[in-house]
Amino acid sequence: MAIAHAMTRILHILDHSLPLHSGYTFRTRAILKAQQALGLDVRGITGLRHGEQGASPEVVDALTFHRTPGKAQGPAGLKEWREIGALADAIMALAQDWRPDILHAHSPALDGLAAVRAGKTLGIPVVYEIRAFWEDAAVGNLATHEGSIKYRLTRQLENMAVSCADAVMTICKGLKDDLVARGVSPAKIGIMPNGVDLTMFGTPAPRDAALAQELGMGDGPVIGFIGSFYDYEGLDDLIAAMPLLLERHGDARLLLVGGGPMAEALEAHAKASPAAHAIRFTGRVPHGEVERYYALTDVMAYPRKCSRLTDLVTPLKPLEAMAQMKLVAASNVGGHRELVTHADTGMLFPPDDAAACAASLADLLDRRDDWDAMRQRGKTHVRDNHDWHRNAQRYLSVYQRLLGGASNTPDSVAA
Fold first, then answer.
1. Do 399 and 378 share a structural domain?
2. Whose CA, among 60, 134, 273, 380, lies 20 to 30 Å from 53?
3. pLDDT, tens digit (0-9, with 9 covering 90-100), for 260-271
4. How far apart are CA 187 and CA 204, in angstroms?
């Protein structure tokens, strides 16, 4: 079977999907759109955590998503096992009619284990793609702590999914290296880096003077963050950096767009800051309006704290910022080092250090003559290394091995 033939069917097994908006759903959309452009027939199916019991199938942005009916109940452990069973049953029911050639599951591990269960019953090969380790994400969201029983059990589920899948993909080198350290053969693991659909980023939007006036942004440089307000994002350090930044650039402003678990604490922190007059919160804005807020910024800042999550996982936002010709300043954690080359495509500063963050931002604002060249290098880096339509071809060799009858042992799957 030719892998680029339209009849090659790939079923993506997902935690949640469009029409919900998140980094997870936008990555999924980009993957499915790029695979369609390569001639593959793709669909998605979501587990019980999608939450919305809408139509099934549901077509969003010309993409088809099936839903898993029902609701899992029970104590911790049993509830998750029931989720796996419900999703596996839904996959098998769909396969009776649509008959996929590959089951491509995306983290968390519940999706991978459901795909493995269904794949073994149906005789269909399984690819398991890890976007982050679920146990580390829970630590980052302050839902548990490293080494807890919950942490260790979740890690074991991840190991089971990796062990049972026919091929594994990760979004970055950090995650692959961690799996190899656990004893997984590197030949079993491929990398599909985070990317940007460059067809969605044309000429950057012009600055909206009315919006700038409404927000009181002034005429000075604007530091921005657009995303979810989680503790690991380090936005408290960015707020703490503002009084120091104002000592060198008194007309600078900080624009924080979004919301999340830390929103209330961050707003209180900003209100108590001597730089309170220079910090603006907008709350969440509709996805279609985000470009207007990007257009107000000069530098996008990503001050992530140092942790296993941020060292191992590459975020999407810095790539989107570079694609939109924005300067990027980011903390020097492993996930950022895979995306940003210091003083070339952006600036890196020590994590968990407000003074270092302020100094880096001030130095970048001092180098206005270098801005155009740095912006161009950033966009070129994204185009050459993180274009979804180019990188999606990496899946093809993995699919071809699995469909071509090659042994599904770790050493036979493309790295």
1. no
2. 134
3. 999 999 999 999
4. 40
Question: Residue 368 maps to which CATH number?
Answer: 3.40.50.2000
Query: What token pair was written down for 130?
Result: 């890890």
Average pLDDT over residues 117-122: 98
How many domains does the chain fold into? 2
Q: What are phi and psi of 58, to 5 degrees?
A: -120, 130
223 - beta bridge partners? Answer: 254, 299
**Domain check: are 328 and 403 in the same one?**
no
Helix (H, G, I), strand (E, B) or coil at 323: helix
Residue 37 lies in a domain: yes
297 lies in the same domain as 282: yes
What beta strand segments (E) does 284-382 contain?
299-302, 327-331, 347-349
Phi, psi of 216, deg, nearest 5: 70, 45
Per-residue pLDDT reduced to its tens digit, 146-172: 989 888 988 999 999 999 999 999 999
Q: Please check the confidence at residue 216 and state whether its pLDDT lies above 50.
A: yes
Considering the domain architecture, whether residues 93 and 229 belong to the same structural domain is answered as: no
What pTM value is reported for the model? 0.89
Count of all residues that appear for the chain in the document: 415
Mean of pLDDT over the chain: 93
Q: b vs e for 47-60, b when ≥16 Cβ sit within 10 Å of the residue's Cβ?
A: bbebeeeeeebbeb
- Top-confidence residue, 21 or 337: 337
